[in-house]
Design goal:
Length: about 230
């Protein structure tokens, strides 16, 4: 058995497979079952009671995690003139339009988020086939097409994340790092769940939050009680 398999097995043994944990308990377990040598990412997977094939049940949005993601988010901004200057001053890693498009067409995607001013979107469309499948295409619905690029850069770097339900009605999001306190992880988890509940489609019938799982990078899944919709850090 490899070291990785042994570590996973040891971590899995700490979890009661037949139990559904409260958010704070799950956060604590996620920290305890992280076995990577690096600071592992903590993820949440949610199975929603929606039919993503129907436009009125497509759950998509953003949320600002109160304790950030623990990640240095690399942001690029498609902008010119004063907007480009504002983006640079806000901390964007790369700013421009023509030069960024040329780099992306050459295969460069070494960034985590992309923002654009409305007047640059026609040009950005030329790399939509590259950015779209990677979830990097600027979109007004996620606040990444905006005239206030400085605010958008600061929000994303400060912990604003985007999420979208996939074709199988599953949704994945990062809520922090294993080095976070369980309180911080539970608070970030709560912010995500609160936003999902706010975005519940009126057309969705039956149970909305069907299954919630928390896990760290390469770690076992921990079932979280989806009925807990307040007092997440208790």
């Amino acid at each position: 058995m490899s070291k990785t398999s042994k570590a996973y097995k040891a971590a899995a043994e700490k979890i009661d497979a037949g139990r559904i944990y409260r958010p704070l308990e799950a956060a604590k377990l996620a920290k305890e079952t992280s076995s990577t040598k690096f600071d592992a990412t903590v993820d949440v997977a949610v199975r929603l009671g929606v039919d993503p094939r129907k436009a009125d049940q497509l759950v998509r949005g953003t949320v600002s995690l109160p304790n950030g993601t623990g990640k240095n988010v690399r942001v690029i901004v498609f902008a010119e003139g004063p907007n480009a200057t504002a983006a640079e001053e806000a901390g964007a890693e790369a700013v421009g339009t023509a030069e960024l498009i040329e780099k992306i067409q050459g295969g460069w995607t070494d960034f985590d988020a992309a923002i654009a001013t409305p007047d640059q979107m026609a040009k950005v469309g030329r790399v939509a086939r590259v950015l779209g499948p990677r979830g990097l295409m600027p979109n007004p619905k996620t606040g990444t097409v905006t005239t206030d690029v400085a605010k958008a850069v600061q929000e994303i770097k400060g912990g604003k994340i985007a999420f979208r339900v996939d074709k199988a009605a599953n949704l994945h999001a990062v809520i922090g790092k294993a080095s976070f306190t369980e309180q911080a992880l539970a608070e970030n988890y709560g912010a995500l769940i609160d936003e999902l509940l706010r975005l519940k489609p009126s057309a969705a019938k039956g149970i909305y939050l069907k299954k919630v799982t928390v896990s760290t990078t390469s770690g076992p899944g921990i079932s979280v009680d989806p009925s807990v919709v307040k007092g997440y850090a208790e």
